[in-house]
Specification:
The protein has one domain: Thiamin diphosphate (ThDP)-binding fold, Pyr/PP domains (Rossmann fold). The N terminus is likely disordered. The protein is 35% helix and 16% strand. The two termini are 30 Å apart. A 7-stranded mixed beta sheet has the order 2-1-3-4-6-5-7, sandwiched between helices. The protein is of the alpha/beta class. Strand 5, helix 7 and strand 6 form a beta-alpha-beta unit. This is 2-oxoglutarate oxidoreductase. Keywords: Oxidoreductase.
């Protein structure tokens, strides 16, 4: 992603240099998982903004709980779903810090719905990075609030049924309607073009936070090969064919220029 080609393709030009903030620790994520890519993007943006010593990440419970092992910044652990509340306290105490949460869909859109909605509505100058893979990945593949209709999980083995389980929740669309949000976007990281777009979105959200423009939500539509019981390649195909039509990508709200 950072390679300088200068019109010449060589092995040296094709080597990706990972962010210096990334620790030399083997990742525990499953093959094909989107988390590792997003971690690297966050690390790149923090370094480019020269905020290494002034960034605080907040991770609650879920697949993202060990994010502190991989990014060498200050971290605070939060109870399940409570990351936006913890981030609110940190940002109010240290307004000069770049404060973000890193949350999955079960954590953010179910257990922490109240904390998420109210923090965004208050316009707290924090960034919420929302990994949406439509399933509880860490705890056994149960149905999440974002699980699609007809999608099979451990707790809806015949597929999600609207009459029985309700409808999938579009938390990002809800966030876009709140007065306190300045930037709300939905991205993905399944291709080079998507990765570049996601990085731009994270950078814009971080900059808006530091400029005191209000809350930002960056959703990353992601795969869960293990939970979906698909290979990484098949999981990407399934995401494109099923997730993107229901969770369309792009900016839903952008008031950063105001």
């Amino acid at each position: 992603m950072n390679a300088e080609f200068n019109g010449i393709i060589s092995p040296e030009n094709l080597v990706y240099k990972k962010p210096e903030l990334m620790n030399e620790v083997p990742m525990h994520y499953c093959p094909g998982c989107s988390h590792g890519v997003v971690h690297k993007l966050i690390g790149e943006v923090i370094e480019e903004m020269e905020m290494e010593e002034k960034t605080v990440g907040v991770s609650p419970v879920g697949c993202a709980v060990f994010a502190y092992r991989y990014l060498d910044i200050d971290w605070q652990e939060a109870a399940h779903g409570r990351a936006p509340a913890v981030a609110t306290g940190i940002k109010r105490l240290w307004p000069d810090r770049l404060v973000f949460t890193y949350q999955g869909d079960g954590d953010l859109a179910c257990i922490g719905t109240a904390e998420t909605i109210h923090a965004l509505n208050r316009g707290e100058n924090i960034v919420i990075i929302f990994i949406n893979n439509a399933i509880y990945g860490m705890t056994g593949g149960q149905m999440a609030p974002t699980t699609l209709l007809g999608q099979k999980t451990a707790t809806c083995p015949y597929g999600r049924d609207a009459e029985l389980h309700g409808y999938p929740i579009k938390i990002t669309e809800i966030a876009a309607q709140l007065e306190g949000t300045c930037y709300v976007t939905r991205q993905s990281v399944e291709s080079v073009a998507s990765i570049r777009s996601a990085k731009r979105a994270i950078r814009k959200a971080f900059e808006a936070s530091m400029a005191g423009k209000g809350s930002s939500l960056v959703e990353i539509v992601s795969t869960c090969s293990s939970g979906w019981k698909l290979s990484p390649v098949k999981a990407n195909e399934w995401m494109k064919n099923n997730m993107f039509p229901f969770y369309p990508k792009g900016d839903l709200k952008d008031k950063t220029s105001e």
